[in-house]
Amino acid sequence: MYSTTVLTDFVAQHYLTVPDPGPEGVPHSHHFEVELTFCGPELNEYDYLVDIDDAEAALASLADRYRDTLLNDLPEFEGYNPSVERFARVIFERVTAAVTDETVTELAVTVWEDDAAAATYDVSV
Asked: Where does the signal peptide begin and end (predicted)?
């Protein structure tokens, strides 16, 4: 199995909307780091699993969308608690729509909200 990983980072804000969230219930910032790991059993005709330029363009678009925003105000979080787990799912959905290499059979999105806490959403595509 091959895998290719690309990374980006940005600062965004959120607040949790669950009962009794403590200090996480008020708007605060995180320096988010996003890792996209594409996996597949074969390479394409150019010996790539995924076109890294396409993957990096998808990441740049993500960073532009979320940088310096309050996640709670965005339509993709409407009705949801903007947890790091939910954020990983939202990013997965955006990336799978943008990167369509047929050699990719699995995508894992890991979102780090600090040096010690991350969540991953991983699905076959």
From this structure: none
**pTM, full prediction:** 0.93
Weakest-pLDDT range from 25-29, 44-48, 93-97, 111-115: 93-97
Contact 89, 81 (CB under 8 A): no
pLDDT tens readout for residues 100-112: 889 999 999 999 9
